[in-house]
Design goal:
CATH superfamily of the largest domain: Trypsin-like serine proteases
CATH class of the largest domain: Mainly Beta
Protein name: Endopeptidase
Pfam families: PDZ_2, Trypsin_2
Transmembrane segments: 37-60
Number of strands: 25
Keywords: Hydrolase, Membrane, Protease, Serine protease, Transmembrane, Transmembrane helix
Largest sheet: 7 strands, antiparallel
GO molecular function: serine-type endopeptidase activity
Distance between the termini: 149 Å
Length: 441
């Protein structure tokens, strides 16, 4: 008998013998299934592990190469392919650019002690010189003389003016005439170096949205003949005009553009794509007050004097050295500054009247004396043109020559009337608008 503690099998917890199981048999290999596995694995590698496989490929390809030590192999050349594109803006600029100049104005004042108390020690008196820079455009050449239009505020108060030509040559200039109301001035120079003259287009023909190009010397002659491009934003925009002290001197009807206009562009031309001058750049709006001493920054709002007005003014400046304008000899208030309630209760205006000029005072030398127009009447037309405010009154008035007779339409005690007036009074350039919104005209 054998030892009863020896068994051929394993002893379980239930004291039962677990019979050994036969080893499982491996399935037979099938060629087709291996191919399927390989294709699946390959697809998985491409889609899911492509970065790793690709990375290995790149590494294996470049690991056996070294970076060149000869830096001369990095040498390159410019292309010999010529780009011949020339757009219309470029053609317009090339047509005018040599007629655009920089204008430099100088004013000198003697602030030395010698000027106050005599010459101490026989030395020279000290001079304080200030400089103003702007732009201009040559518009006429006659014999040995060339004429340039610029802004009045560029040369105002100066006793010396020089012009920097497009070729870099600086020439002395003489002031032919200037006009503070229109902010225009005419200069003349020797025409020997003048190779190009600009022509004026009709500013009445411009359209909102058409391309406009501004040429000038922004920030001074260092950036002379700079070109900026934009569009016509408004054909006739009425804006307030202020003097150097910030006092409003009236209103002006101008062309509005979003072409970049900066200090130094003043007096330069605004041109169309035909290369014609359609305006003289005069100012830009850089900020606007919003109350409580704060202001809002403004971009893309530049203004130019329309070419039709420019031509009229500079022809008078050349002929007379000044602009001779008729005047009504009155103090006035824009109707829009009168509360609507008072327009009806005090001025007796019908509700259909929405614009005009209120006569606040009639001067002794006014051509309106004896015309029937009285204080408190509202002028609504002059010379057949509608008057809606100060700007439209000046435009209508300045369209006539001194001594001409015009018909004036007005309201008196609510009744519409007309009268004829002979313009005998000449305007001067010293009229200013007071804080009460009254204006001598």
């Amino acid at each position: 008998m054998g030892d009863k503690n020896q068994y051929s099998g394993d002893y379980t917890e239930n004291n039962q013998v677990e019979q050994p199981q036969p080893a499982p048999q491996r399935p037979k290999k099938k060629t087709m299934s291996l191919k399927k596995v390989f294709l699946v694995a390959l697809a998985g590698g491409v889609l899911g592990g492509g970065i790793v496989i690709g990375g290995c490929a790149v590494y294996n390809r470049y690991s056996s190469q070294t970076v060149t030590q000869d830096n001369r192999k990095g040498k390159t050349v410019t292309s010999n392919i010529k780009v011949t594109e020339t757009n219309q803006a470029t053609k317009a600029f090339n047509k005018v650019k040599n007629a655009v100049v920089s204008v430099e104005a100088y004013s000198s004042s003697d602030n030395s002690l010698d000027s106050l108390f005599g010459n101490f020690g026989g030395g020279k008196s000290a001079k304080e010189t200030s400089e103003s820079e702007g732009s201009g455009v040559i518009y006429k050449k006659s014999g040995n003389t060339a004429f340039i239009v610029t802004n009045n505020h560029v040369i105002a108060g100066s006793n010396k003016v020089e012009v920097l030509m497009s070729n870099g040559k600086k020439l002395p200039a003489t002031v032919v005439g200037h006009d503070a109301i229109s902010d225009l001035a005419v200069l003349k120079i020797n025409a020997q170096d003048v190779t190009e003259v600009a022509s004026f287009g009709n500013s009445d023909d411009i359209q909102v949205g058409q391309t406009a190009l501004a040429i000038g010397s922004p920030l001074g002659s260092e950036y002379a003949t700079s070109l900026t491009e934009g569009i016509i934003s408004a054909k006739k925009r009425t804006i307030d005009v202020t003097n150097s002290q910030g006092v409003t001197t009236g209103q002006e009807t101008v062309i509005q553009t979003d072409a970049a206009i900066n200090p130094g562009n003043s007096g330069g031309p605004l041109i169309n794509l035909a290369g014609q001058v359609i305006g003289i750049n005069s100012m830009k709006l850089s900020s606007t007050g919003t109350g409580s001493g704060s202001s809002t920054s403004v971009e893309g709002m530049g203004f130019a004097i329309p070419s039709n007005e420019v031509v009229s003014i500079i022809n008078q400046l050349v002929a007379n050295g000044k602009v001779i304008r008729p005047a009504l000899g009155i103090s006035l208030i824009d109707l829009n500054n009168i509360p609507e309630e008072q327009q009806q209760s005090v001025l007796k205006l019908p509700s259909s009247v929405t614009g005009g000029i209120v006569v606040a005072k009639i001067n002794d030398n006014s051509p309106l004396k004896g015309s029937g127009i009285q204080k408190g009447d509202v002028i609504v037309s002059l010379g057949g043109k509608k008057v809606t405010g100060l700007a439209s009154l000046r435009e209508a008035l300045y369209a006539h020559k001194l001594g001409s007779t015009v018909e004036i339409g007005y309201y008196h005690n609510g009744q519409e009337k007309t009268t004829k007036v002979r313009l005998t009074l000449e305007a001067n350039d010293q009229n200013t608008t007071a804080a009460s919104n009254e204006d001598g005209n």
